[in-house]
Backbone:
């Protein structure tokens, strides 16, 4: 047996006898698949006097073979046998039989190289990640990828219903790296899981159930957990990839009180972008290949910021005076016919077969950017509790109407002509409908703010123009919601849709108290049209499920509605719909809404 004072650094640090004097790498380091540098000590270096290694002790790893390491005990020329070497062929069998390491003995099982668990299209893990971090990530499923069938369906869903709304990456690079799977082109593990997560909300449930998940909600939770743990453990160091990943993680928003909601991830993306001077004015004059990607990423952050501010009546993070990124154009999108092997992987995806529908989806993103630029100006007036002046109201209403009037004809919203649409047409229709909902929500916010502190009474004979405007907008929103529900496209809408529906549903409940049979009947129909959409969103988003339960209890006069809406069906107590309503409604609307809800309870 070799003395403990002689050996490699790994064995000495763990008080393990080392056979470094016999061959390099030593037996322990071979088993653990780690480098085996000799310890630079007097005992381990040559004769112990000058520190130079003895040449006769240096062997290359190629000279080692299993056959050469096994010697007969009676062979006089054989070197002393390392005390662990006779167990070499029995370690894996013993481990399988025992199931657990023996206390007090070193774990002799060769540790798996986690890179070997990942397919060739995934980037290798950083070499400086500690072993305990890797083990923890493995227990959290971070190295577990969906099977090929589910993965391809999620990628197809991403191309149809996520990337058009958030074009934060180069779709062709992503798809070709996965389709080729030859190691020549690789993508980040964090970005891959973020793509998978963002697609789970819109995928057909049959694929989720086939993979063993009980619901899209359960799949969303698992895929988000994988992406989040990879982010928390700093597995990815490329800041552009981090920005892309966290922007896709803005699809996570489950409770109003969660501090790490989509606003949290958006602010992380903004911080990372600012740290690398991502919007340097001089950069936009260049003709680099990445210029279009940078512009799309910045406009994704800008539009998300404006929509969150509109929905939750919050201040914007990106100031207009600081935002100097030029508007996106068609030249900023990598529109192409994707190669046959990519189309085969995605089941011959209609949108990727040609450029026509890709161009339409890109144009919709450009129009969304224009709309959010208009919304940016009216966010300050609608956050003013005292209401906005007639001149400000007129200016922004006209700006919104001009945006709608200037939309290309193939992007303007129209009711579905047929209950059956092709795969590509479904993607286009959902985007058109969502743009129309944003336009209506912005117009409604202006009309509601125009009322100021006045109570809302649209059924009075002397109803004011803002009250009549609110009535018209809520009816239009219900029509759009009904079209989405008929085509089963509600689940394809982004999470911000929940916030767009809240003021509309609250208004419908107030209209139901009308003494006018026409207004009362229309309000009931519109309320349940919007409720069907909210309940469908509840199959994906916990917040939507909670809000749907709350409004059902409000319309039915359930005195325990707030408790029941707090998540008894989901097992997630603490979801407070009233807290969310206080963010999306004005003070006067809240006062009127609660008054009418009490009337419903008293009469039930």
Residues:
């Amino acid at each position: 047996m070799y003395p403990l004072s002689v050996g490699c650094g790994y064995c000495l640090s763990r008080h393990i006898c080392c056979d470094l004097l016999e061959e390099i790498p030593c037996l322990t380091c071979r088993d653990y698949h780690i480098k085996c540098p000799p310890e630079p000590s007097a005992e381990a270096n040559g004769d112990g006097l000058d520190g130079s290694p003895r040449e006769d002790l240096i062997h290359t790893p190629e000279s080692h073979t299993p056959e050469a390491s096994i010697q007969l005990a009676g062979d006089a020329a054989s070197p002393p046998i390392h005390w662990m070497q006779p167990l070499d062929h029995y370690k894996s069998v013993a481990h399988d039989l025992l199931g657990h390491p023996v206390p007090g003995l070193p774990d002799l099982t060769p540790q798996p190289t986690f890179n070997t668990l990942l397919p060739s299209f995934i980037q290798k893990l950083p070499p400086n990640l500690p072993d305990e971090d890797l083990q923890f990530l493995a227990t959290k499923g971070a190295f577990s990828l969906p099977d090929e069938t589910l993965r391809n369906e999620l990628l197809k869903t991403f191309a149809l219903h996520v990337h058009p709304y958030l074009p934060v990456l180069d779709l062709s690079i992503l798809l070709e790296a996965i389709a080729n799977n030859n190691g020549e082109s690789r993508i980040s593990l964090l970005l891959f899981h973020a793509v998978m997560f963002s697609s789970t909300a819109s995928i057909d449930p049959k694929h989720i159930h086939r993979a063993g998940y009980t619901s899209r909600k359960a799949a969303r939770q698992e895929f988000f957990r994988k992406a989040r743990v990879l982010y928390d453990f700093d597995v990815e160091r490329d800041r552009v990839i981090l920005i892309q990943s966290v922007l896709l993680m803005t699809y996570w928003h489950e409770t109003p009180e969660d501090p790490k909601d989509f606003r949290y991830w958006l602010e992380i993306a903004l911080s990372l972008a600012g740290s690398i001077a991502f919007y340097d004015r001089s950069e936009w004059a260049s003709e680099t290949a990445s210029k279009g990607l940078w512009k799309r990423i910045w406009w994704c952050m800008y539009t998300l910021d404006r929509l969150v501010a509109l929905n939750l009546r919050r201040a914007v993070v990106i100031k207009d005076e600081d935002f100097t990124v030029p508007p996106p154009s068609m030249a900023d999108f990598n529109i192409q016919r994707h190669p046959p092997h990519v189309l085969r992987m995605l089941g011959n995806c209609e949108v990727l077969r040609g450029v026509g529908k890709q161009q339409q989806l890109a144009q919709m993103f450009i129009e969304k950017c224009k709309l959010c630029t208009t919304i940016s100006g009216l966010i300050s007036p609608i956050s003013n509790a005292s209401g906005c002046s007639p001149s400000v109201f007129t200016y922004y209403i006209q700006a919104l109407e001009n945006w709608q009037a200037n939309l290309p004809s193939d992007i303007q919203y129209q009711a579905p002509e047929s209950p059956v649409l092709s795969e590509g047409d479904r993607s286009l229709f959902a985007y058109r409908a969502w743009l129309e909902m944003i336009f209506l929500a912005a117009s409604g916010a202006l009309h509601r703010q125009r009322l100021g502190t006045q109570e809302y009474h649209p059924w009075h004979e002397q109803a004011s123009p803002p009250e009549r405007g609110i009535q018209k907008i809520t009816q239009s929103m219900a029509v759009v919601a009904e079209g989405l529900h008929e085509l089963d496209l509600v689940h394809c809408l982004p999470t911000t849709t929940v916030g767009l529906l809240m003021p509309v549903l609250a208004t419908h409940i107030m209209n139901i108290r009308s003494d006018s049979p026409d207004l009362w009947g229309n309000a009931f129909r519109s309320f349940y049209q919007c409720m069907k959409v909210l309940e469908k969103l509840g199959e994906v988003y916990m917040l939507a499920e909670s809000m749907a339960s709350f409004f059902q209890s409000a319309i039915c006069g359930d005195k325990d509605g707030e408790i029941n809406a707090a998540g008894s069906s989901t097992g997630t107590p603490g979801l407070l719909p009233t807290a969310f309503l206080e963010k999306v409604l004005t003070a006067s609307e809240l006062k009127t809404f609660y008054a009418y809800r009490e009337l419903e309870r008293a009469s039930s």
